[in-house]
Amino acid sequence: MPKWKLVTEFSFSSAHYIKDYDGPCGRMHGHNYTVKMEATASELHTSEYCPHPVMVADFRTLRWAKRDVTKGGLDHCILNEVMPPEYETTAEMIAKYIYDKTKKILPTGVKLKVSVSETPNSWAEYEDD
Ligand SMILES: Nc1nc2c(c(=O)[nH]1)N=C([C@H](O)[C@H](O)COP(=O)(O)OP(=O)(O)OP(=O)(O)O)CN2
Ligand SMILES: [Zn+2]
């Protein structure tokens, strides 16, 4: 089936610690997180900002997490205070948190994959088939 694939990448800077981690990652420290989002669909949709069905998903919608925390994003915050307690602040669970929140605001039928990196050397990816 024909389909479109969007890829968008952005970054945000925040602090975190991993609860009960035996090592430096258990102390508060910061990262310049890089997030890559891939959205796939075989139909185009309207968006919050555009009334015409011309997009898989609006890049502005996909990129919500780069906004300042006071505007609903994850930039310049303490992730442990902003993310619900069922999500630990590992790259794995930040990816799932961004995935879960984004899925709720995307049109049905859009398949999503979220990758999160804390450092240039390590990535975590999350998708749900
Ligand atoms: N599977 C995971 N392992 C670790 C995570 C994680 O999110 N998922 N996170 C951490 C810590 O947050 C830590 O800040 C990152 O540790 P590390 O990769 O060792 O960071 P470095 O700055 O030392 O990275 P280098 O690029 O290797 O210098 C730990 N583990
Ligand atoms: Zn860290």
From TrEMBL:
Coiled coil: none annotated. Transmembrane segments: none annotated. The active site is at C25, H76, E118. Binds 1 zinc ion per subunit. GO terms for biological process: tRNA queuosine(34) biosynthetic process. It holds the Pfam family PTPS. The keyword Lyase applies. The keyword Transferase does not apply. GO terms for molecular function: 6-carboxytetrahydropterin synthase activity; metal ion binding. It is an enzyme of class 4 (lyase). Zn(2+) binds at H16, H29, H31. Belongs to the PTPS family. QueD subfamily. This is 6-carboxy-5,6,7,8-tetrahydropterin synthase. It comes from Mastigocoleus testarum BC008. The lineage of its organism: Bacteria, Bacillati, Cyanobacteriota, Cyanophyceae, Nostocales.
